[in-house]
Design brief:
The protein has 556 residues and is an all-alpha fold. It contains 20 helices and no strands. The N terminus is likely disordered.
Length: 556
């Protein structure tokens, strides 16, 4: 993804080199922003759990599946659909029509956001009654405030999403990435300050969870203001280019009709992730209680699975999401301009970069799961689930990127069907495996579900693109580089294990575990980059486009 600037030259059917370079720079900044944002989101989990406790953190996590569903319904796929429409109009020089589309959808999204807010606010008791096991009235009462403080974020998030869609349609990814960082910084700052004050005041678990969820509302306010400024700046720039161009104002019904063609299947597809979270929220506590666990133990284990294993998995998966969100409008632009070699290059580049980023992250979660778990969460209870989540992240990332690729080829419904197949498999395996393996069974079920969906998606990509895209052939170089890193991880762990024979107390110390992880990564990262360059899993020019650290890495 970082080297799309090389996809096409100066004379390719109006596809300009400056636009390609802008995309390359913006995409790399997008990836860096996502990394910072997700890293902050991951790091806040550690103090948050320690401050509010495992039970309150479980309540905090219970609120989010409903929030994600409401957000998906509030946006119903319009952001990605808008970016696709904007990229088509901008390729044709119709900038005034592009902004008119943005304005029309903006008014529509205000209404959708208000409806989603009301549904989440007043539907909280029903959602909790359906989700949680029977005889849990006290837990329902405790969780309602966390949902209520999360709901106001839905008033702004639909507007944020279409602002990002407008910017991404022009391949202006810098502001979109920066807004994620602003969102996360504001959210994390509020959560830490608010929960510390709450803990000092001695408030109950319900109030602590509610304060933590309100951080999301604070974060989206900062992101909205930043994106608003960026959209106005881009509008002035593009309208100057089309000041004297013929302009026919699009009718609102035509705008909605076109966007619904794109948005409906995208919305259905994006519902799969929140539905998967809802399945976990519905099945894990119930099945654990049915297996003999207490309600507090079941909710705590659910918090471990969703707040540790799945949160850690989100770091590599967020990179895949950044790649996918960039590739769909980029493929649309290339196809609209009639540059088939750029289409194929961008398709292969997205899969190559996904493998380059995801494989070492998955390896780290798989081999260093225990040390990461002790260092971050002061416990080893979720270690196996974290290790399985590392494997899950590969298939989940491949499924996500291949879905965006199919949408770039205007094949919207095919990945939706594949995702629901994976979801059905996950539900069945949850029911079968959780009673025997607990939260590890849920992780296994999700991994198999993503594997099936990704395989079906890649088969469809080969069919509709006409290219003989073989992911193993694209990814083997990154995998080969990971083997050397894995050897180092195992050697390092063997040395630590020998030391712990003489000092057994070191095995449970957080500072020791943290040092183990940091040393492993400090040595492992240059090993991976060295062999990735040697095996051509990534080139020097691609690496140099990474913001802030790219040129330093090349010099090193």
């Amino acid at each position: 993804m970082l080297y799309y600037a090389q996809d096409y030259g100066r004379g390719d059917s109006g596809m300009r080199e400056d636009g390609a370079g802008r995309f390359g720079r913006g995409a790399s900044i997008m990836v860096a922003s996502v990394f910072i944002s997700k890293l902050l989101g991951l790091l806040v989990v550690v103090p948050l759990q320690n401050i509010i406790g495992g039970y309150a953190y479980g309540i905090f996590r219970i609120a989010y599946p409903l929030y994600t569903i409401m957000l998906t319904l509030a946006t119903i796929g319009f952001p990605l659909a808008l970016s696709k429409t904007i990229s088509q109009l901008s390729a044709a020089g119709k900038h005034r029509e592009a902004y008119a589309n943005f304005r029309a959808i903006g008014r529509f999204m205000l209404i959708f956001g208000a409806i989603a807010f009301l549904l989440m606010w007043f539907g909280a008791p029903l959602y909790l009654t359906v989700t949680l096991p029977h005889d849990s009235r006290s837990l329902i009462i405790a969780a309602i405030p966390a949902i209520h403080t999360l709901a106001p974020a839905l008033l702004l998030l639909p507007l944020i999403s279409i602002e990002r869609g407008y910017l991404q349609g022009y391949l202006r990814l810098e502001a979109s990435g920066a807004s994620q960082v602003v969102d996360q910084v504001a959210r994390v700052t509020f959560i830490l300050i608010g929960t510390v004050i709450a803990a000092l005041m001695g408030v109950n678990a319900s109030t602590k969870a509610a304060i933590a969820t309100f951080g999301a509302t604070v974060g989206v306010l900062g992101a909205f203001l930043l994106l608003r400024v960026s959209v106005r700046k881009l509008r002035k720039e593009t309208l100057r280019k089309s000041k004297f161009s013929p302009y026919t104002p699009p009718r609102a019904q035509d705008v909605f009709r076109q966007l619904f063609v794109y948005a409906l299947p995208i919305a259905t597809g994006t519902l799969v992730l929140p539905l998967a979270q809802a399945i976990d929220a519905w099945t894990i506590p119930r099945l654990l209680v049915a297996s003999g666990a207490t309600m507090v133990k079941a909710i705590t284990d659910y918090g471990i699975y969703t707040g540790e294993a799945l949160i850690l998995m989100q770091l590599p998966l967020s990179f895949a999401n950044a790649i996918g969100a960039s590739i769909m409008p980029a493929l649309t632009e290339s196809r609209a301009a009639g540059v088939p070699h750029a289409v194929r290059a961008r398709l292969n580049a997205s899969l190559k970069m996904m493998a380059f980023i995801t494989f070492p992250a998955a390896l780290t979660l798989g081999l260093l799961a225990k040390q990461i778990n002790i260092a971050l969460f002061a416990s080893s209870s979720g270690t196996v689930a974290i290790a399985i989540a590392g494997i899950m992240s590969i298939f989940s990332a491949l499924e996500l990127v291949s879905t965006y690729i199919l949408q770039g080829y205007d094949r919207f419904y095919r990945p939706v069907v594949h995702m629901f197949v994976g979801l059905a498999i996950k539900l069945a395996l949850n029911i079968l495996l959780i009673p025997f393996f607990g939260i590890n069974g849920a992780a296994i079920a999700s991994t198999i579900g993503y594997l099936i969906s990704a395989w079906l998606n890649m088969r469809a990509v080969r069919h509709f693109s006409g290219a003989r895209v073989q992911f193993p052939k694209i990814a083997w170089r990154a995998l080969a580089a990971c083997l050397f890193v894995g050897a180092w991880f195992l050697l390092w762990q063997k040395g630590i294990a020998i030391l712990q024979v003489w000092q057994p107390q070191l095995a449970s110390m957080r500072i020791v575990a943290l040092l183990e992880v940091l040393v492993a990564l400090f040595v492992g990262a240059p090993i991976y980059l060295f062999f990735a360059l040697r095996f051509r899993a990534v080139s020097g020019s691609e690496l140099s486009k990474l913001p802030l650290v790219g040129k330093l890495l090349i010099r090193t």
